[in-house]
Amino acid sequence: MRDFSYIRAASASQAGSAAQQSGAMFLAGGTTLLDLAKCGVSEPETVIDITHLSGMSGITVDTAGARIGALARMSEVADHGDIQAAFPAVSQSLSLAASAQLRNMATIGGNLLQRTRCSYFRDPGAFPACNKRNPGSGCAAIGGITRNHAVLGASEACIASYPGDLAVALVAFDAVVELDGRKVAVDDFFLAPSNTPDRETVLQRGEMITAITIPASAAAVNSTYIKVRDRQSYEFAAASAAVGLELEADGKTVRDIRVALGGVATKPWRARSVEQALIGKALDADTVEKASRLAMEGAVSHGGNHYKIELAPRVVTRAILKMGGLA
Amino acid sequence: MTRSIHIALDINGQRHELDVEPRVTLLDALREHLTLTGTKKGCDQGQCGACTCHVDGRRVLSCLTLAAQVEGRQITTIEGLAGEAGDLHPMQAAFIEHDAFQCGYCTPGQIMSAVACIREGHAGSDAEIREYMSGNLCRCGAYNSIVAAVRQAAAEAA
Amino acid sequence: MTMMEPRKHGDASDGTVGGRQSRFEGSMKVTGTATYALEYPFENLAYAVLIQSTIPAGRVLKVDIADALAIPGVLLVLTPEDDLGLTLGADWGGNKPAEGPYYPLPRDVQFNGQSIAAVVAESREQATEAARLVRVTYEESKYVANLNDPNAGEGKLMDALSSAWGDAEAALAASPVRIEAEYSTPREYHVAMEPHGLTAKWDGEQLTIWEPSQWSHGMARMYSEWFDMPYENVRIISPFIGGGFGSKGQPLAYGAVAVAAARKLGRPVKLAVTRPQNFTSYGGRAGTKQKIALGATEDGILQAIVHRGASETSVYADWPEQTGAATSILYKVENFSSQHRIVPVNSVTPGALRGPGKNPSAYGIECAIEELAYKLGMDPLELRLKNYADHDYQSGKPWSTRQLREALTKGAETFGWSRRSHAPRSMRDGKTLIGWGIGCGTFPVIRAPSEAMIRILSSGKVEVISGAIDMGQGTYTILAQSAAEVFGIPVDQVEVHLGDSRLPGSAIAGGSMLAGSIMGAVHKAAVAARDELIGLALSDANSPFRDTGANTLNFVEGRIAAPRGEAPSLTLAELMFALKREEIEVRRNTLPEGASAQEQVQAWTTMARVQGPTMGDYSMHSWCAHFAEVRVDEDFGTVRVSRMVSAFDCGRLYNPRLVESQWRGGIIMGIGQALLEEGLVDMRNGRTVNNNVGDYLVPTNSDIPDLQVISVGVPDHNASALGGKGVGEVGIVGVAPAIANAVFHATGKRIRDLPITLEKLL
């Protein structure tokens, strides 16, 4: 890593103004920042440790929904009884992520901002061409080994997938990201690469996530997160789905359904086409399978990631049938 | 221009003062600056768990933690686990009894992880132990024995 | 080194050979007091960091180090421009392929990831930062990325590995039932948890190196040749290593760099190879492919095996990953033909990774035999038993011991194989397909001489002293058990000193040869020491035994007494005190009588005395049979091993507790090989893109079910003095085919290229 200065912020405003300097980065859990600094991808000149800021790590759940401070640790939220009851998909998306140690370190805000695991992005020494690191330099992944890369939301400039789990569950349930001074829906918070893959979120320089809120819903209560990967644990998703389901009184007609995908797109991917195809319909395996495939409309494969187009709808189907009591 | 900072770290109940660059990780502070080499470097990238120690009682990866970040927190390493008289922690004893290690390199991290796993309440079944210990790789393949050791220590702690 | 205090568990017999003594150095490992190579404190230490190439082939034209040198704390930047003054040495067999200078940082680039420069600084952080600022200009040339590169070519036939008897082609053509299939295994990596590295220190003409080593004496010899210095002036210290699996048996270029830097600077230098750099600093298992054709009668008697295989090697050295190694000895067949080719590619020279040759070889033949079983409509267990090799058809020699039939039948019984329904896709649990498969494994008994020293101390302690290595396989423990048994004392009265090239010579901790070898030497030395003590005790004027009329003494439960049991009875300490002796030191080796001093050094520092499995009257191997149950998600294609039973014939077990751990360790590596592990190479520049343990996947704890392991071995005194056969590598052999066969049984899909990842089953 290049040398940097370390500041421990005593207040949010001190953090914010320190962050205005060029080369300044917030340090929360450190699991992304230090990792990328070691890869030579991030080269902060100043790290601003925000983990001692107060009032940003609370977790509250009431009838309106949940409010989770950006500095709450992943493990705290995952194990929180009220989150488990009202938003099981959120809890599961956290428990299935990373490892216990990393979940103790990483914060909710930092987790949202984790960056792609694209091997080309992470190896600047061997692959200088990376539009995300260095706009205009090209994309080394295209034409390379792309088993983990995105089939949805990609562009000719960048096919790197967003690897996180929590954000997938958040986007399914219309969570809102609170910054210091404005609120942004999660779906709008993340940006698809288009021709500016270096811009991954709407965060401006010096802006800090302070909290996320998730509105309560019956679908969120009856929700799950299924994560499919090569090994049983400690690995990013090959494909994942966050699904919430609310049925009518007859127990089989869909009143509300939320579907979001992970591991297959450049940003957490809300699959509204699947939702729309199922609202008001009676749930059965065939109907669900057909609807799930709509999630892959517009999918484009590159090299070794074609399997995601086959796999992702199956994960969605499994999750929906599980929540509908049909799996 | 390297900018050293002066920090004081509370490790295993002892205060250690050191001058380090801000970029020095807790892992390197332990191993290179404080000759506390019980905590191991397996990958230095947060992917293997060998560097696991406790910060305020929670298990964390010291390779992705700056030394400066944990000033003011209580750090526990493998060296701090045994009793004052050198008597082994029940987890250490269980590891020996079940042969839960071979080369020994991942072992301090496994033990620190296991102690915290029980404290977290995630050692309620073999399946849970396996899942919650999956952040500690063991290439020698002591996994079955590690589960047995953690199961035993959890029962003793209950 | 601090004393180890073995804990007492179980009963007294644990402490003798064959007992379940818990790991001797255990308390050190669980308290963090076992010191590994990069953990020794030094005054005035400097830190070195490697720089590796980012092109697959060509030349280094220019290395711009000005910006690197400007970083505070930087002491030295070594590049191909620097003549480090080294000489080419002999390989580990003791063969010198060429004369001339050795350039550990060469101008010629032969693979992506080759070390070409190094920065040395006051701290690792400074050296790392400076390394990023070194700018290399290359001239690129043509390259071959890997075995599947269209430019790879056919490579060259390894004549010495060709094997044939009968007329395989004709017999195959005449066989009523035939199968032919091609199997492949990818590049695989050791991923020992301790990355490579070393600390080097000069004291005048003396060089001391703290480096994880599977072979202290061999590595000392190789360093001494590079640096053109007497062997005695080099010392390798390696009492603990964080895993080896075949990767830590020889010094490598980065070692030469660190030693040269230490010499230039006049300071000790520590060089840590980063985890990503580990993937190209030494070779893992080469990628392989093999075509197997089996011919059989309608009732399943094998008529012919035709095998053609190939593996990658580098463009600068030949290393075969011998795909025919197990093919020739697993079954009875009268017509056999096997050939192996090596194909040069631009990678680091492949190396020995647990079970070299045998592992991919068994993958091929054990999948093929089961494919034949399905074609015949036969139970794969029955087919294997029907073609049981009553002797080694390749060498013509009888087996020394071979309990493979017992392994198959006992394993099958324990697993419940008889409950199997034969048809693929016939067992399921909801969305989960269940399948069962078998895979047999084998690993040769390799023998080598060792020496050992025993010291009986006046305190009553017995010291076992050897340069042999414990890399987790349990050398400390079994040697303590051996000495304890000979002297009739508890294990905690024994001290074991290992891992130092200055200590008595030993075989390498590799090829599963060490335990048999060093146990033989220690036993010999211990018996000789005991006999010397008995001789003194019966003749010395001061001895309480002088007038007993006994002509020997018994050593039982910590006391020494005449065989008829009458007085006196003394402890070891009491006897030494009575004899007024501070210590008795005895050194013995297992070389033939009359070996000269030079022959002895050669025996410890080269492979010249290593004997293969058929270099005697018998064909000697360890054997195993694995029974695997897999659960495959029908929709996702994910495969999980849910149950495994493995039965082993490894002869007499010196310590069943430690052996079971070795067996399980090998099995877990086999599971990784079958389902997860694959070195990925970008064809456009030969880069190993998954050069880290987040992208190169090894099994986690939750991937592994309870592994049931059973011993069916009997003592084999042709294989070794104490009756054991190798245990460390046989466990990985046969696991991947057992799993591949189980996946076929579960899904009806035969996947022949490893790893069996989910997209292959979608």
TrEMBL record, chain B:
Residues 5-81 form the 2Fe-2S ferredoxin-type domain. It comes from the Bacteria. CDD domains: fer2. PROSITE patterns: 2FE2S_FER_1, 2FE2S_FER_2. One of its GO terms (molecular function) is oxidoreductase activity, acting on the aldehyde or oxo group of donors. Keywords: 2Fe-2S, Iron, Iron-sulfur, Metal-binding, Oxidoreductase. InterPro entries: 2Fe-2S-bd, 2Fe-2S-bd_dom_sf, 2Fe-2S_ferredoxin-like_sf, 2Fe-2S_ferredoxin-type, 2Fe2S_fd_BS, Aldehyde_Oxdr_Iron-Sulfur, Beta-grasp_dom_sf. SUPFAM superfamilies: 2Fe-2S ferredoxin-like, CO dehydrogenase ISP C-domain like. The keyword rRNA-binding does not apply. It holds the Pfam family Fer2. This is Xanthine dehydrogenase YagT iron-sulfur-binding subunit. The lineage of its organism: Bacteria, Pseudomonadati, Pseudomonadota, Alphaproteobacteria, Hyphomicrobiales.
